[in-house]
Predict the structure.
Amino acid sequence: MSAPACAGLDPARLGVWLADHVEGFRSPFGIRQFPGGQSNPTYLIESGSARYVLRRKPGGKLLPSAHAVEREYRIIAALAGSGVPVARARALCEDSSVIGTPFYVMDYVEGRTFWDDALPEVRACDRRAIYDELNRVLATLHAVDFKALGLEDYGKSGEYIERQVARWTKQYRASATEPIDAMDRLIDWLPQHVPPAEAPAIVHGDYRLDNVIFHPREARILAVIDWELSTLGAPLADLAYLCMRWHMPAQEYRALGGLDLQALEIPTESEFVAAYCRRRGREPLTPQTWAYYLAFNMFRLAAILQGVLARGLQGNASSATAVEMGRRARPLAALAWQIVCREFDAK
């Protein structure tokens, strides 16, 4: 194990804990940190022919309720057998003395992860199927009977959007490094224009193409990962979070904004949303309702990026690109306010 890749981890102590808590685990083992990731540091553990993934909280001072690996473990354990593809949960450690922070272990899932929404490495004829599978799994998640899984206390009941706006306003202000006018405008506007509440569902909170693992050859999702922001909430917020990718500039975010979707054989945003509504058996959305959910999610992501920037400037981010990534909070907030002004004639 190389020190730079796994700084702060005591392999001997970790190995003892894994042998005691993960069925079938054997030493010796190797461990290395996955590149990328702006939140919870993630590691690959190899023990003979078995491979596992360890997710831990980052070190340093953390914002309240952030980096909740305990919640991640609970949700993936509960969703096993639900129809929503997840990795097998193995063990949770809430004792910070083992590696310095709480962590959990799950099985490693072999497959494909796509980092560019345009899917340049995929044949054009396969892209639509990949997006359809992304759509299907999200609709499946939102249809899960969370009470039957014992998750009725996984989130507060009612006023999901109001609480989310308040939470991310607080998080943003706690990590602000400089004024962002569009964020201040959104903080004032969003609480006053919340759409009528929907029936709650399990929401992933960060559902996007690079947070799912596809089968090595098929357009089939084997696991949804990174459940840190999951809770009980508004399904349309989850859908709009994914659909932000159709609005965000392709070059800066590896997203779909400005691309020729017909040539790429990727569905348009309206096609994707319509397919989701059909699967969920719901009526089409009004333009203003959809615009609100898009703006809300851009605000929320901008607040998250501001936290990434703050950790980067403090020197305790989990990625070397944290500062560069975090500086995207400002243009993203500006894009959200543009959508509000266009659909609601806001000033």
About this structure: Residues 1-5 have pLDDT under 50 and may be disordered. The longest strand covers residues 50-56. Residues 72 and 294 are 25 Å apart (CA to CA).
